[in-house]
Amino acid sequence: MEKVPMTAGGYEALEAELKRLKTVDRPAVIQAISAAREHGDLSENAEYHAAKEKQSFIETRVIELEDKISRAQVIDVSKLSGQVIKFGATITLVDIDTDDEVVYQIVGVDEADVKAGRLSVSSPVARALIGKTVGDEIEVTTPGGHKSYEILKVQFG
């Protein structure tokens, strides 16, 4: 069974979503299905079909979250150190072409949010960064085109 790396915050977010789905969303959709059944003929009941579709989505997501949580490898970033980039590192980069500085943290797939500076460990930029150190240059093809960066700073915690 393949482990899924994530930060403690990412793990907590998955657990919170799972709890919400089980305690709030699931009972609400069951109530909606029950109410829609009372309207009669189910074959032409749009409310019933919409509620059943939502129930299917919720149940699929619950299974997905339970699987990820069971395979979670929670990495305590505050206990990591060093100059070599690895999961959990916060990296300051400078775009060689524009001199713009960007700061990214390498996080789990479910935690990624590029606008918030959180790169998925499986993204092209993160894969290019892992194993590098301050002063190294990387070149990567992103959805926005070809980019060249120099690593200015690596920190953990």
UniProtKB/TrEMBL annotation:
<dbReference type="Pfam" id="PF01272">
    <property type="entry name" value="GreA_GreB"/>
</dbReference>
<feature type="domain" description="Transcription elongation factor GreA/GreB N-terminal">
    <location>
        <begin position="4"/>
        <end position="74"/>
    </location>
</feature>
<protein>
    <recommendedName>
        <fullName>Transcription elongation factor GreA</fullName>
    </recommendedName>
</protein>
<keyword id="KW-0648">Protein biosynthesis</keyword>
<dbReference type="GO" id="GO:0032784">
    <property type="term" value="P:regulation of DNA-templated transcription elongation"/>
</dbReference>
<comment type="function">
    <text>Necessary for efficient RNA polymerase transcription elongation past template-encoded arresting sites. The arresting sites in DNA have the property of trapping a certain fraction of elongating RNA polymerases that pass through, resulting in locked ternary complexes. Cleavage of the nascent transcript by cleavage factors such as GreA or GreB allows the resumption of elongation from the new 3'terminus. GreA releases sequences of 2 to 3 nucleotides.</text>
</comment>
<dbReference type="GO" id="GO:0003677">
    <property type="term" value="F:DNA binding"/>
</dbReference>
<keyword id="KW-0238">DNA-binding</keyword>
<dbReference type="InterPro" id="IPR036805">
    <property type="entry name" value="Tscrpt_elong_fac_GreA/B_N_sf"/>
</dbReference>
<dbReference type="Pfam" id="PF03449">
    <property type="entry name" value="GreA_GreB_N"/>
</dbReference>
<comment type="similarity">
    <text>Belongs to the GreA/GreB family.</text>
</comment>
<dbReference type="InterPro" id="IPR036953">
    <property type="entry name" value="GreA/GreB_C_sf"/>
</dbReference>
<dbReference type="InterPro" id="IPR023459">
    <property type="entry name" value="Tscrpt_elong_fac_GreA/B_fam"/>
</dbReference>
<dbReference type="GO" id="GO:0003746">
    <property type="term" value="F:translation elongation factor activity"/>
</dbReference>
<dbReference type="GO" id="GO:0070063">
    <property type="term" value="F:RNA polymerase binding"/>
</dbReference>
<feature type="domain" description="Transcription elongation factor GreA/GreB C-terminal">
    <location>
        <begin position="83"/>
        <end position="155"/>
    </location>
</feature>
<dbReference type="GO" id="GO:0006354">
    <property type="term" value="P:DNA-templated transcription elongation"/>
</dbReference>
<keyword id="KW-0251">Elongation factor</keyword>
<keyword id="KW-0804">Transcription</keyword>
<dbReference type="InterPro" id="IPR022691">
    <property type="entry name" value="Tscrpt_elong_fac_GreA/B_N"/>
</dbReference>
<dbReference type="InterPro" id="IPR001437">
    <property type="entry name" value="Tscrpt_elong_fac_GreA/B_C"/>
</dbReference>
<dbReference type="InterPro" id="IPR028624">
    <property type="entry name" value="Tscrpt_elong_fac_GreA/B"/>
</dbReference>
<dbReference type="InterPro" id="IPR006359">
    <property type="entry name" value="Tscrpt_elong_fac_GreA"/>
</dbReference>
<dbReference type="InterPro" id="IPR018151">
    <property type="entry name" value="TF_GreA/GreB_CS"/>
</dbReference>
<keyword id="KW-0805">Transcription regulation</keyword>
